Amino acid sequence: MFGLRGLFSSDMAIDLGTANTLVYVKGRGIILNEPSVVAYHVKDGRKQVLAVGEDAKLMLGRTPGSIEAIRPMRDGVIADFDVAEEMIKHFIRKVTRRSTFSKPKVIVCVPYGATPVEKRAIRQSVLSAGARRAGLISEPIAAAIGAGMPITDPTGSMVVDIGGGTTEVAVLSLGDIVYARSVRVGGDRMDEAIISYLRRHQNLLIGKSTAERIKTTIGTARMPDDGRGKVMQIRGRDLLNGVPKEIEITQGQVAEALSETVQTICEAVMIALETTPPDLAADIVDRGVMLTGGGALLGDLDLALREQTGLIITVADQSLNCVALGTGKALEYEKQLRHAIDYDS
Fold first, then answer.
1. C-beta of residue 303 within 8 angstroms of C-beta of residue 222
2. pLDDT tens-digit map of 15-43
3. Is residue 160 within 8 Å of 221, Cβ to Cβ?
4. Which of 300, 296, 298 is closest to 316 using CA atoms?
5. Model-level pTM?
6. Looking at the DSSP assignment, which residues form a beta bridge with residue 182?
7. For residue 296, what is the DSSP state?
8. Is the N end or the C end of the chain the one with fewer CB atoms within 10 Å?
9. Contact status, residue 148 vs residue 112, Cβ threshold 8 Å
10. Is the C-alpha dihedral spanning 152, 153, 155, 158 positive or negative?
């Protein structure tokens, strides 16, 4: 019976992220997690998609002149409408069984600071990609639900969702947002900071994939006690003589490169705390702050925030998947959370 029901139902929740897109199918959980990258070539003035997701990410920074590999999402919202639509179509087709008879209902999470125009672009892309109905849910609410926070209680909860393009800081109570702020700083900005640091201090030019590898391997938000910490060998192009070169980079150097980005996140949290009503602020002192998103995995970020705020800082168990899981739960428990889902704007 369950298998038969699965045949008809393919309603899904999509975390349309700047770096990765995750798809949650009702009753089945997260069944797709791929990079938000599309590779295409232009033929007769039209963009023809060659690869999407993992295959396209391998092409980033390595394409010939006739092919372009891009991320159609920037700062959590659509930057290239046509390419984003193709990407969403591809992912929906990939998870929808051929035997499904009806078009799916889709809920997508959007950054809190998204404008009505940006929201309309996301909704339109999802509908054009074959959805029967498209609902939007605010990213901080989805992140808090995914992290298992009791957001429907009459107490204050604070969530900091650090994604690829944006960091969302929100205070929630009674199932809705009391205060939220979206700063356009995230994992991508960290990668850019590492690239520009190495260019300035080591005269070495590296690509985005190398910067991301440095961040995930030895990235840290605090200067190591000995000023060096772990080391890593990296390769790039020497800007002085133009030849490939291999150098050693230390954790201390990465911490220095990321200091400005980390400070921006800390400031966003401090501003949120200053703006929170006193009773909710008292609840946050008791409960602490929950970190979600891929950026929450940056080494010692919780300690850096603890030093700045004096609060208990916790990293969510599945921080990378929190937003997708929360959007999925909104789909599963739609009646209870319908006030948080926007079907018309």
1. yes
2. 888 888 888 888 888 888 888 888 888 77
3. no
4. 296
5. 0.81
6. 168
7. G
8. N
9. no
10. negative
